[in-house]
Amino acid sequence: MSFKALFSSFLLCLSTTFAVAAKSDSQQVCSADQLAQIESAFQNSRAELARAADLIDAADPSTIDKSQLWLGAPSSSAAAELASTMRLAASFSLFQMKWCPNVNLVELPWYPNKLAGLHADSTVDIFFGPRFFDSDIEAAGLDSQSSTVSHELFHSVEANETPGPDGGEIYDIRGLEELAAQRPEVARRHAQSLEYLVTDLLHGIP
User: What is the CATH number that goes with domain 29-202?
Assistant: First the structure.
């Protein structure tokens, strides 16, 4: 074998090794304590999504006002579809693997405070970053463990709009309110908008 061929083979082996290492990093097994927190967050999330769907069906003035704030001007058909989306998200059960990487990942380029994410190539893996388990992250409420799980469940039922200026999601409250006012059809398929509506209905958002 020529030196050039040998060197090319070495580079291929090296790149494969790095790829496997990165995948291995992303598939770090969760500890027993982490799994307990995750399972509790899933239970809370599913209960909150079901309660929020019931509130949407009841359509009292407060619910209508909050729906308009986060998702734009409501209609009876839009409300029915919204309640259906929440119940579908609450019943989603296809996650087979839960991973707890302790680093930012090549496959999941999280910004520093990202709590969780889905892998682009898999619909059955969900990843929880170190921030999810920090002591200042509440079990329920605004930007909590349960609301984070709700967010990922919304992604899993096709709430995948990315209307942000950088081609990603919108996370700040002002931006979400503007999205609802200007592009309600997009807000209704935007996971962060849906997450904040659920949180506002059940816990309030200052």
Answer: 3.40.390.10
